[in-house]
Amino acid sequence: MQNKQIPFHRYIISLICVAVISGGGVYIANNSGVTLASEEEDELQKVHTLYRTLQEDYYQKVDKDTLIEGALKGMTEALNDPYTTYLGKEEAEQLSNSLADSFEGIGATLTLVDNLPEVAQAPVKDSPAEKAGLKVHDKILKVDGKETIGQTLNEVVQSIRGEKGTQVTLTIQRADKTFDVEITRGKIPIASLIAEMDENQPTIGKIQIASFNESTARELQEAIEKLRKEGAQSFIIDLRQNPGGYLSQVEAMASMFLEDGQTIVQFETDDQIVGSSKASSDLDGGFKVTEPVAVLVDGGSASASEIFAAALKESANVPVIGTKTFGKGTVQAVNGFGDQSELKMTVQKWLTPSGEWINEKGLKPTIEVDFPEYAYLPPLPKNETLKKGMTSEDVENLNTFLHVLAYQTEGNTFNDATEQAVKDFQSSNKLKETGEVDAETAVVIELKITDQLRKSDQMYEKAVEVLTKESKQ
Fold it and tell me: Tell me, what is an example of a GO biological process annotation in this record (predicted)?
């Protein structure tokens, strides 16, 4: 199960979030600096010698900062631990932004379509982007006069972000019009969860948690209080594709669902238990959730998400529903060097309340429910037009998607049936009826598939079934 790709509807969510959130893990807040002791110099004599030799004798001029950065990265890479790494200034800033509860920018989420950044969804309410009139599918051709084509999504995002009060000029293409928009950057809150009542079950509140950032525990308490007022008598906590975040936040959140004294997580170094975290009013402020709860997980639920799910499963007997989780059982601390670069380093293992280390194994759900097979298919190509006569894996995926949408297509060949299905689809969705699948048609097909997956979310439906049965007992 862990070898499967990201479920398609979650791919859409992940793709959109990349402009705001990246990375994952369990992190301990740590502001201490890193220094090199003088007694280590003898051990590093070979490193110093190599550094001087490259500077003095290499046939071209060598940038000293490049050598130093390479040496630092090399030391962390030598540990063969993907979660221990040296972060340069830009990478450190990205990690900090990914765990923050706000950022400074314009409030638009982007994706890449045909190698151009495009507004992926409606701008954040009351954000500079909304006030400037940016709309979904607006293409950003230039940022402050610099062309964006060929840049990575992250490069474009970093150039648009900036300090509150500063200005950025975007060259926008909307349909057949091109124009400049000058936007004054502002502070944009990052909501780490979405809470709403179930459409069909008036007593079930659902909360989707995207990450464990600086304010997620507070957001969770506020969400539960709000849903209670709306009639919620039970809750579904959706942690699918949640990559993790701050340890302090997941401890506070898990504590809300446990009785004081119950174990949330244990910590181990050198195969010795060195500590544990237990539910208490010090963590949750006395706020408790005593209503029935179900937790949703999948192969993208990692680290802090796994701590939360394991704590509720093992200490509170809460049903965990979905597929086996990612399997990241380590804790990282972040230490600054003083020049805005950082060392992200693994400092502990974490174990479930029962003492299990799930690293590279994942947490097994109480009730296993998977996505339909088509949910794991890759997205349709955006840099190639699929047309009649073609035979490929992409065409097979297209035929599968169309079949899911009730069109009579199958196989890996773009035949007459595929062409007619595409024309019918384009007609019903107000697209130009070409019978070919270009980037625009591909995006609309994917959005319809996403809607279909949301309407037939078997994991969520199982959680509703479990809570409904429990309420009748």
Answer: proteolysis
**Residue 107 amino acid letter:** G
The pLDDT tens digits for 231-283 are 999 999 999 989 899 999 999 999 999 999 999 999 999 989 999 999 999 99
- Residue 333, classified by CB atoms within 10 Å of its CB into exposed (0-12), middle (13-18) or buried (19+), is middle
Cβ-based neighbour number of residue 356 at 10 Å: 15
CA distance 349 to 265: 10
Residue keyed to tokens 């625009």: 440
**Which amino acid would we find at residue 3?**
N
Q: Phi and psi of 245, rounded to 5°?
A: 155, -145
Pinpoint the alpha helices (H) of 78-185.
89-98, 128-131, 153-160
Positions annotated as catalytic residues are: 303, 314, 328
| H-assigned helices in 191-273 | 216-229, 247-255
Q: Per-residue pLDDT tens for 121-175? A: 778 778 899 899 998 889 999 999 999 998 888 889 889 988 999 999 999 999 8
Domains and CATH numbers, the chain: 1-56+64-98+191-371 (3.90.226.10), 102-189 (2.30.42.10), 385-455 (1.10.101.10)
Burial class (CB in 10 A: 0-12, 13-18, 19+), 165: exposed
* Contacts of 150 by beta carbon, 8 Å cutoff, 6+ apart: 115
Could you give the dihedral angle defined by the CA atoms of residues 291, 297, 302 and 306, in that order, rounded to the nearest 10 degrees?
Answer: 40
Contact between 320 and 312 (Cβ < 8 Å): yes
Cα–Cα distance between 401 and 445 in angstroms, integer? 8
Please state, in angstroms and as integers, the Cα–Cα distance from residue 320 to each residue in 242, 296, 342, following that order: 15, 6, 36
Bridge partners (DSSP) listed for residue 147 = 142
The pTM (predicted TM-score) of the whole model is 0.79
